[in-house]
Amino acid sequence: MSLNFGNLLGALPGGIAQGIIWGFMALGVYITFRLLGTSDLTVDGSFTTGGAVTVMLVLAGVNPVVALLIAAAAGILAGTVTGFLHTVFEIPAILAGILTQFALYSINLAIMGMAANRGIPVDKYVLFVTSRNIPGSILAAGLLAAALIALLYWYFGTQHGSAMRATGCNQEMAKAQSININSMKVIGFAMANGFVALSGGLLSQYQGFADINMGRGAIVIGLAAVIIGEVLGNALLGKHLNFAGRLIFVVVGGIIYYFVIVVVLWLKLDSNYLKLLTAVVVAIFLAVPNLQAKSKTSFRLAGKRSMKSSREDG
User: Fold this and answer.
1) Is 184 in contact with 163 (CB distance < 8 Å)?
2) Which of these, 150, 149, 267, 131, lies nearest to 205 by C-alpha position?
3) Cβ-proximal residues to 285 (8 Å cutoff; 6+ apart), any chain
4) Mean pLDDT per segment of 10 residues, for the chain of length 314 residues?
5) Cα–Cα distance between 66 and 63 in angstroms, integer?
6) Per-residue pLDDT tens for 235-279?
7) How much is the pLDDT for 314?
8) First CA to last CA across the chain, in angstroms?
9) All domains of the chain, ordered by start, with CATH?
10) Which of 19, 50, 139, 226 sits a CA distance of 20 to 30 A from 218?
């Protein structure tokens, strides 16, 4: 098997574009997974919802940018449903997400006219991002990512955003500060799925179609981007990594994840093993912080024992 490095270099820009697009979804996962301290499985459905809404609106003649905004609104609605199931009916967050995701499968089919996939004639429309103009897509998606990261940084620095972060850190303490934790959770779920649906809408424009299964396993990809970004950020900046840096590295994690995918495809490995590879990558990066903590603890214990034995000898 001969490998052509030119093909690898040629595929990298496309990996960057898709990595940034998935980075929006990773930002949504970061909100629930890190800031609210829960796992929201709604994303597998709301990602497809974003793609389905975007494609159908573009086909109906709606401006592609406006279609993305409406897709994000649809994701916000889906997240709100999960939030209400969790807070009002006290259904565990994971189960609430599964219920919403399950319902979205039928809803997404209905949005696409009961078709499993719908395509966009890319020659007929001027899309916000498209695989036919990868440099332009990287620029457009990159600028949008920068703007939304700046918006998130500003929001979570406000009193309302700080209240949401406090809810995720310590619910009892948040209650003691008169914070309505249920409202914070609903808003957090809604915001997160808005980002996820936006990501789905961007991907549907980039690839030129929406598919009913396009969101399958999205939560794992999002977790991969979050974990990879966190590990890389901590390795490069350590204690100097602030909240803005964490948000940036979440998107960078999405890009690195897609670099791995590009390399795997370049190596001509069976693409059916991509999900297995993703699971392994996530497991490794999840284990790294724990292993680092254990190694530091073991070194400290070894140092203390060494000092203790030297004192006893002395």
Assistant:
1) yes
2) 131
3) 224, 227, 228, 231
4) 77 93 96 92 97 97 97 98 96 96 97 96 93 96 97 96 94 91 96 98 97 92 90 89 95 92 83 79 75 66 59 58
5) 5
6) 899 889 999 999 999 999 999 988 888 888 888 877 788 778 778
7) 55
8) 64
9) 5-309 (1.10.3470)
10) 139
> Rounded CA gap, 252 and 259, in Å?
10
- Going by C-alpha positions, the residue among 11, 98, 111 that lies closest to residue 51 is 111
- The SS3 call for residue 153 is helix
What does the DSSP 8-state code read for residue 158?
S
> Token pair of 92, please?
């565990």
Q: How far is CA 258 from CA 18, 53, 224, in A?
A: 7, 25, 10
| Whole-number Å distance between alpha carbons of 224 and 22 | 11
CA dihedral over 68, 70, 72, 78, signed as positive or negative:
negative
Please, are residues 112 and 202 in contact by the beta-carbon 8 Å criterion?
A: no
DSSP state of 157: T
What pLDDT, on the 0 to 100 scale, is given for residue 39? 85
The residue written with tokens 């994971």 in the block is 94
Q: Could you tell me what percentage of the chain is helix, strand and coil, using 3-state DSSP and rounding each to the nearest 5?
A: 80, 0, 20
Reduced to 3 states (helix: H, G, I; strand: E, B; else coil), residue 268 is coil
